[in-house]
């Protein structure tokens, strides 16, 4: 992410781990990977808590994502 002056203000990296999957092939790391910064040794600036409703997964499905991981508890459990 960049601010209005094109200064880099945030990076987003993620890793996907799914139990029993694999065989994806390709490189296991990226040349674009950046080292993480250590967490600050202080209290957080803010804590935000959100509670989702029991029908949250069904509502999310309305976005068009029909992946059973999001709606089927047995499928989600198998994925870890």
TrEMBL record:
Domain MaoC-like positions: 39-80
GO terms under cellular component: peroxisome
Gene3D superfamilies, per the entry: Hotdog Thioesterase
Superkingdom assignment: Eukaryota
Gene Ontology MF terms: (3S)-3-hydroxyacyl-CoA dehydrogenase (NAD+) activity; 17-beta-hydroxysteroid dehydrogenase (NAD+) activity; 3-hydroxyacyl-CoA dehydratase activity
Swiss-Prot/TrEMBL GO biological process terms: fatty acid beta-oxidation
Location of the region described as Disordered in the Swiss-Prot/TrEMBL record: 24-47
Residue stretches in coiled coil: none
A Pfam cross-reference name: MaoC_dehydratas
Protein name as catalogued: MaoC-like domain-containing protein
Species for this entry: Rotaria magnacalcarata
